[in-house]
Structure formats: C-alpha cells, structure tokens
Q: What sequence folds into this?
C-alpha cells in the first residue's frame, strides 16, 4: 500500500462523508446574503468534494513520478473517480439541484466506457484516457461544484452558470463516450 494508493483510498472514504453532508438535514441557520442562500452542509460538502476531486491527478502523478504504479492503483483510481461523481450526482438529484436525466447520462457513460475498457483488457490492451475524457472530467467537476454552491458567485449576477455547465457536461459526456466507442469499435464483437 503505497502513498498514491492511500490517496486514492482516501478519495473513496470521502464519498460517504460528502453524501452525509448533502442528504442529512442538520438544522443550522443557512448562510444568506442578498437573495442568495446556502447551507453550511453544502459549503462543507463542496470543499471536501474539491479536495477529493483534486487528489485524482495527484495520486497518478505520485505513482508515475516514483515508479510505484500498481495493479491495485489501476483498479482503484477509476473506481474512486466514478464513485465520487456518481454519489454526488445522485445526491444532487435527490436535492433537486440537477435533472435526473443528466445524472443518468453521465453515470451510464461511465458504465459503458468501463465495460469497453474491460473488453480491451481481456484483449490485452489498455485504453488510455482521451483528451475528450479529460475535458469531460473537468466539465463534470466544474458543474458539480457550481451545483453544490447553489451557483455561487454567478447567482449574484443572475447568470445560470449551473444550468449551462449541466448541459455542457451532458453534451461532452455523450460526445466523449461516442468517441471512445468509435475509436475502439474493433473491440466490439458484432457476431460470435
């Protein structure tokens, strides 16, 4: 269990904490100014999410730099990413902050690409993250932070950045998923 894997595990262990903060109603007076209001739970959940999301690049960097890439890390890293995003999206749907169809599109794409990666592994190939996959991750994280913070600071300007980023995340998620399948169509057996 090296440092990179410990960081990845920490990301996994932060998931239930974030969900608890988002889904359990703690009766604290919300932070309010002007027409904007946000619960302390959401602020704390957003901060923890930002820390967790930022460790994604850190664990991989440490593993590569120190030449401590392990099979466990290769398994846990994408699992941690998917758990973090899926859990927060499901929580945001429950909180009525994002449409369920957007969460379904994002989570479905993750399952589909993971399945394609598994097929590639069985063929002895590894599918590296594409530039579209990296953009997808960045846009999804931006969207989630905007939703967790009730569209702050854009809400003060009456600008629906949260809505725009949700649509952008859905579109780039679909595009990046299609891109993976088109580029790797030779992995999909059309007949046995």
A:
């Amino acid at each position: 269990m090296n440092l990179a894997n410990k960081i990845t595990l920490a990301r996994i262990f932060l998931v239930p904490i974030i969900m608890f903060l988002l889904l359990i109603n703690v009766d604290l007076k919300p932070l309010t100014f002007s027409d904007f209001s946000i619960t302390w739970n959401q602020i704390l959940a957003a901060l923890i999410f930002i820390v967790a999301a930022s460790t994604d690049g850190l664990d991989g960097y440490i593993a590569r730099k120190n030449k401590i890439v392990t099979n466990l890390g290769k398994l846990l890293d994408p699992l941690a990413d998917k758990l973090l995003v899926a859990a927060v999206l499901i929580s945001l749907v429950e909180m009525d902050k994002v449409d369920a169809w957007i969460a379904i599109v994002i989570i479905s794409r993750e399952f589909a690409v993971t399945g394609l990666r598994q097929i590639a592994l069985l063929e002895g190939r590894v599918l590296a993250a594409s530039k579209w996959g990296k953009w997808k991750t960045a846009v999804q994280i931006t969207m989630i932070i905007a939703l967790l913070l009730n569209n702050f600071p854009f809400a003060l300007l009456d600008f629906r950045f949260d809505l725009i980023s949700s649509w952008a995340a859905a579109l780039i998620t679909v595009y990046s998923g299609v891109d993976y399948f088109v580029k790797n169509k030779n992995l999909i057996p059309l007949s046995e």
Observations:
- The CA atoms of residues 105 and 157 lie 29 Å apart.
- The longest helix spans residues 40-65.
- The radius of gyration is 18 Å.
- The chain has six helices and two strands.
